[in-house]
Amino acid sequence: MVQQITKGIKISVETSFEGTFYKNYKMQYAFHYMITIENQSKETVQLVARHWIIRDALSTVETVSGEGVVGFKPILKPGETHAYTSGCMLTAPFGSMQGHYNMINLNNSKKFKVIIPTFHLNADFAIN
């Protein structure tokens, strides 16, 4: 598990390899990740957007940005958590993801970024 705290918001990430698939005549490696967002601050916050940088071992880089996470813009009061699962496909059996969430402090309307720590995506058979 990878974890990081930014401005009282703790991000925890767990990953797993789901298998291989063919897409457009190319082998694709499917990964699943579960993210838990925990509000350890004294403020109520809302996640409004996400930004990802996804890299694979073949130097392919993909950037993904959008509103919320899996259709939600969770509001977290102090001590609350929000967990979700998602996934990605890579063209190599290992890679990494990193990024940030754009959040807003609902007590004072200030926007801030929460770092999503770099986490690795590794197919079981590709690990020495």
Write a concise synopsis of the structure shown.
It comes from Formosa agariphila (strain DSM 15362 / KCTC 12365 / LMG 23005 / KMM 3901 / M-2Alg 35-1). InterPro entries: ApaG-like (IPR050718), ApaG_domain (IPR007474), ApaG_sf (IPR036767). The protein has strands spanning 2-6, 9-23, 26-39, 45-56, 61-67, 75-76, 81-90, 94-105, 111-122.
Q: What does this protein look like?
A:
The protein contains no helices and nine strands. Strands 4, 5, 6, 8 and 9 form a five-stranded antiparallel sheet that branches. The model has no long low-confidence stretch (mean pLDDT about 95). It has a single domain, classed as Sandwich (Immunoglobulin-like). Strand 8 and strand 9 form a beta hairpin. With about 130 residues, it is mainly β. The chain is about 0% helix and about 70% strand.
Rg for CA atoms: 16 Å
Count of DSSP strands: 9
Low-confidence stretches: none
Helix content: under 10%
Give the CA-based shape.
Answer: elongated
Indicate the CATH architecture. Sandwich
Mean pLDDT comes to 95
Count of domains = 1
**In the CATH hierarchy, what is the class?**
Mainly Beta
Pfam families: DUF525
Organism: Formosa agariphila (strain DSM 15362 / KCTC 12365 / LMG 23005 / KMM 3901 / M-2Alg 35-1)
InterPro entries: ApaG-like (IPR050718), ApaG_domain (IPR007474), ApaG_sf (IPR036767)
Domain ApaG: 3-128
